[in-house]
Amino acid sequence: MDAIALWQRYQDWLYFHEGLGLYLDVSRMHFDDAFVESLRPKLDKAFADMDQLEKGAIANPDENRMVGHYWLRNPDLAPTPELTQEIVQTLEQIEAFAEKIQTGAIHPPRASRFTDIISIGIGGSALGPEFVAEALAADFPPLKIHFIDNTDPAGIDRILNQLRNNLASTLVLVISKSGGTPEPRNGMIEVKKAYAGNNLDFAQYAVAITSPGSNLDKVAQSEGWLARFPMYDWVGGRTSEMSTVGLVPAALQGIDIRAMLEGAKEMDDATRIPDIKKNPAALLALSWYHAGKGKGEKDMVVLPYKDSLALFSRYLQQLVMESLGKEKDLDGNVVHQGIAVYGNKGSTDQHAYVQQLRDGVPNFFATLIEVLEDRHGQSPEIDPGVTSGDYLSGFLQGTRKALYENHRDSITITIPQVNARTVGALIALYDRAVGFYGNLVNINAYHQPGVEAGKKAAAAILDLQTKVVAVLQTEKTPLSLEEIAEKVGAAEEVEAIYKILRHLHANQRGVVLQGNLGQPESLKVSLS
Q1: Residues forming beta bridges with residue 210, ordered by sequence position
Q2: 355 vs 430, which has greater pLDDT?
C-alpha cells in the first residue's frame, strides 16, 4: 500500500475519545473490509452478550456467578439497589480509612503514623496493585508500598529485611478472596511471625481484604484487625483492580481512586456503543481475531513507551491469558484457545527483541503504547531542537514503520499522559476487549479451570511429602526411593518423591541422602 493510501486508511480507522484524549490506531493491522463484514454477525452477538453480562446474566456457568466488575465504576448499573448501595458505601469506607491512616488518626502503637505498606496477595490480588503503584504513585507517597506476591522464602526475607527498621510503622494488607490460597496465606503467616519476633501485635497493623465470612475474615474479626474490606463473589481476580483489591492500596498511596474509576467509567461507556468503528474494545477484539485467525496463532507483544507503564504487559498477561486460554469452548468442543502476551517497554526492547520482531519468526502482533506528554515541565535539549522525549517518540514511530514495512502487524494506543483517569481507562479498555474476544471465539472468559488444576496438583505433592516423612520417621534403616514409594502407596510417584526429598535435603530439613545425587536409583534415604 502506498503512503497516500496508508494515510487514508489511518484516517478511516483511527478511533479518538475526546474526553480521555485517547487514540486507537488499528490501521497497521492487515484486515480488509471483506473480513470486517464477515465478522459482523459475531460482533453483533458479542455486543448483545456484553449487554446481558452487565445486566447480571450468569456469565460464568461453571461457578454460577455473575460478572460485575463494570458495576464498580458505575454502581447505578448493578442489578439490585442493595448492590449499588454496597459498592458506594465500600468506596466511602476506603476513602475514610485511607484519610485516617494518612493523617495519623489511625496510627501504630509505637509511631505517630504509618510509613510503609506490605501488600500480600497473588495473581490479580497483586498484579493490578503493582501495575497501578508503578504507574501512579508519587515519588514520595504518604505510604511506600512493598509487595509479597509469591511464596518464595528469599523474596519474603528481602521485603522484611528492607523494612526491618520500619516494621513498627508498617501497615499490612492481606488480600485473598477465600483466605485459603496458599501464597497469601503463607506470606501472612511469615509476616505475622516477623511482627511477633519484634514484639509487635500483628492485629494492630493488619487489614484484611477478603470475602465476608471467609477463613481470613473470621481470623481478622476474632483477632481484632484494624479493618476488613469485602471482596465480591462477582468480581474475578484479574478484573479486580477497581474493587477493594486495588482501591485500598491505591488510596493509601495517595492515588486518586475516584479519577481511576471515572476514567474506567468513561471507557466503559465508549465500549458499549454497538458500532465497530466507534467502539475501541471491539476494534481491539477484531484486530486480535484477524491476527491469530480466531485461534490465537500469533502472540501479543505489548510495548509501552513510558517507564511508568513497564508493568502493564505483566498485568495484561494474566488478564488476557487466564481469560482466553481455554481447552474447550462453550459448546464443549476442544479448541485450545488463547493469546500469549509478553513485553516490557520501549525503547529498551528495541535493543532486546525488536530485531526478531522485524526479521525473525512472524508469530506475533505488536501493541505500542504512546504517551504524548514527555514529563511534567520543560525538557532540556539533547541536540539542537531535540529532547530525550523526541527521541522516544521517534523510536516508537520508527519501530511501527519498520514492523509494517516487513509485513508485521501492530496496534498503537496513544494517551495524553499517565494519570489516574488514563490508567483507569486502559484497564477498562482491555477488560472489555477480552470479553468481546471471548464472545467471538465462543469461550468462557471468566473461569480458570487450569489454575484450579495446578492448585490441586500442588496440594497433592504436599500431601505426598507428609506421607513420605511419616514413613521415614518409622524406619530404622535407610530406604531406596522405590521402597519409600511402595510404603506410601504411590509406586507411580517415584520421581515426585525424589524431588521432594532432594528439596528437603537441600534445606537441612533432616533428610539424609546417601549415594550419588545425580543417580537417583543409587540413593538410600533416612532422617538424621
Answers
A1: 230
A2: 430
Active site residue 322: yes
Q: Point out the catalytic residue in the list 45, 55, 295, 351.
A: 351
The 10s digit of each residue's pLDDT in 124-160 is 999 999 999 999 999 999 999 999 999 999 999 999 9
Task: Tell me the C-alpha distance between 261 and 251, whole Å.
Answer: 12
Cβ-proximal residues to 230 (8 Å cutoff; 6+ apart), any chain: 86, 90, 209, 210, 211, 212, 244
Which of 54, 322, 370, 493 is the catalytic position? 322
In this predicted structure, the answer to whether residue 354 has a pLDDT above a threshold of 90 is no
Average pLDDT over residues 453-463: 86
DSSP β-ladder status, 170-175 and 206-210:
parallel
Residue type, 90: T
Kind of pairing, strands 381-383 and 386-387?
A: antiparallel
Mind listing the pLDDT tens digit for each residue in 95-109? 999 999 999 999 999
DSSP summary character for residue 139: S
Residue with grid cell 490480588, as numbered in its chain: 125
What confidence category does residue 54 fall into, taking pLDDT thresholds of 50, 70 and 90?
confident
Integer angstrom CA distances of residue 295 from 28, 315, 502: 20, 22, 41
- Whole-structure pTM value: 0.93
CA distance 188 to 182: 10
User: Which residues on adjacent β-strands are paired with residue 361?
Assistant: none
DSSP H or E stretch at residue 364: strand 364-371
Supply the DSSP symbol for 214. Answer: S
Query: Where does 376-487 have alpha helices with state H?
Result: 388-405, 420-440, 449-474, 481-487
For strands 22-25 and 410-415, give the pairing. Answer: antiparallel
What is the grid cell recorded at 266? 468513561
Per residue in 383-418, pLDDT (tens digit) is 999 999 999 999 999 999 999 999 999 999 999 999
What was the pLDDT predicted at 55? 76
* 3-state class (DSSP) for residue 256: coil
Nearest CA to 437 among 329, 333, 284?
284
Residue 183 bears catalytic tag = no
Residue 118's pLDDT is what? 98
- Active-site annotation holder among 218, 277, 455, 487: 455
134 in active site: no
Amino acid present at 38: S
C-alpha separations of 239 from 69, 266, 410 in Å: 6, 17, 25
129 touches 246 (CB < 8 A): yes
* Residues with Cβ within 8 Å of residue 470, at least 6 apart in sequence: none
